[in-house]
Amino acid sequence: MKTSRVTLTRGCVAAAIVALTLTALQAQKPARRIAVFGSSVAFGTGDDLGKEGYTGRLRELLAPRGWEVLNQSRGGDNTRTMAPRFAPVGEPDPRVRYLLPVHPAYALLGLSLGNEGIQNGTTKAEKDAIFAQFESGMRGFVARSRENHIVPVITLCYTRNDFTAVEYEYTRRMNLAINAWDVPSVNFLGAVDNGSGNWAKGFWHDSLHPNAAGHFEMTTTFVPTLFDAIDQGKPLPKTSTATGFAHASAPAAITFTPDSTMHPFALTFSVRAQTDGTVATIDGSTLAATSGTKREERARGGAIEFETTTLTAAGPFTASIGVRSGTWTYTSAGGQTIASPVKIVKADAQWHQVTLSHYTARGETLFYVDGVLAGKTSERLEPNRFVLGGSADLKDLLIYRSALNADEVAALQKGTLVQASLEVYAPLADATLKPGTPLENLAQSLSAAKAGTGLVHVNQ
Fold first, then answer.
1. What is the mean pLDDT of residues 445-453?
2. How far is 238 from 390, CA to CA, in rounded Å?
3. Domain holding 159: CATH number?
4. Cα-flanking dihedrals φ and ψ of residue 364, to 5°?
């Protein structure tokens, strides 16, 4: 008995020392250290170029800005199996990638409904339970991060090739739910979705993981200055209650130029225009897609073959949104037109919400007016400039570094702000609209659209 008591006491002391050590390390944590804490996709599985997937590419993106990115991910994890890796209990296992021992200032939480087993539920009740388990687990990681003075950021759920329409619906529903939390998030689904909840063709390594091209597309959904904005104390965006709007009377009344490569994107704004003419243009480069097959030897023997898509600049483009013959119309990079059905919505004296959603990986652009899909067209774009103007009233400009699906567009139409991968949120209610000056941006970024000529403030 005496020996047993001594052993127990020593164990308690050891645990206390570990806890005190972790507390001390947290107090000394570098202010600009991000730990990616997730499963196999976050780990970099499937990256045939060996660049550590989106984590390695995020490191490359943020290093010039003074950020350090660590990879604390492990293949196969879900909310339950990752929880013990948050912090060691007792002596840390040197083979385990824990979160707290690397004392990050930020934790990028990268899990998915796929690993949670959503596709394995055989009934609605079982799938609902898995859905609730994932939601509870992610909320738990957010709470534990904050308890340890770590800022959490979430990557939204993404695709798998074994998803059916049912799992796809759960994925979209979870993403909308997370968008409503008080946590910054990144919209991976808007980069690699083929429209049915599976990986876009040529952007997957195996049914569960993206290839190098897919990892790159996912990386482009990060707002480059997201962490800088949080570091400077900029809050999550909330729906503006400002009154007023901007009246444009020149072609380039508002401009926005991304400062790093943009692939998938969404442009949405509210507009009132009663005469034919262009109210928005998107400039950049079209992308040519070349497909090939790669063969990869496996460590345990055998090989895997997969298709990969390479995107290269093909030439400049200008696409536009405007009013043509009384209807809202999108004119694509190739000159194809999509018009809103005049029986459903037409250009008139009322405010209308226009959304252009582009998926680079799957090569498709969708055009919505007042939440209704007007049509879609095939094209691959790399935008480098957005312009609003013409002769129109404008408000609530939003620019995302990810495409938006129909559910997200519907949420915007109902007045719900979708914040994942949002780079610009300009209410356009600025009292002063001097040419060349930045417009108010409520998004968690340090980017800003700028006022051009022919733009004046109008009281609501």
1. 97
2. 28
3. 3.40.50.1110
4. -145, 140
Mean pLDDT of 403-427: 98
- Residues 154 and 191 grouped into a single domain: yes
Phi first, then psi, for residue 225 (nearest 5°) are -105, 15
Regarding whether 283 and 177 lie in a shared domain, the answer is no
CATH code of 426's domain = 2.60.120.200
23-37, 248-262, 426-440: least confidently modelled range: 23-37
Asked if pLDDT for residue 186 goes beyond 80, the answer is yes
What pLDDT score does 398 carry? 98
* Residue that terminates a domain, selected from 190, 222, 254: 222
**% residues pLDDT > 90 (the chain):** 88
Question: CA 151, CA 233: separation in Å to the nearest integer?
Answer: 11
Which domain range does residue 445 map to?
245-458
pLDDT reported for residue 257:
98
One domain for residues 6 and 94: yes
pLDDT score of 212 more than 90: yes
- Does residue 301 sit within a domain? yes
CA separation, residue 334 to residues 131, 140, 282, 315, 331 (Å): 42, 48, 13, 11, 8
64: Cβ contacts below 8 Å, ≥ 6 apart: none
Residues 317 and 256 in one domain: yes
Q: Are residues 304 and 176 in the same domain?
A: no
Residues 156 and 29 in one domain: yes
Inter-helix orientation angle 406-413/165-179, to 10°: 40
Q: Is residue 262 part of a domain?
A: yes
- The total number of residues shown for the chain amounts to 460
Digit-coded pLDDT (tens) for 358-397: 999 999 999 999 999 999 999 999 999 999 999 999 999 9
- How does residue 299 score in pLDDT terms, banded at 50, 70 and 90? confident
Predicted pLDDT at 138:
98
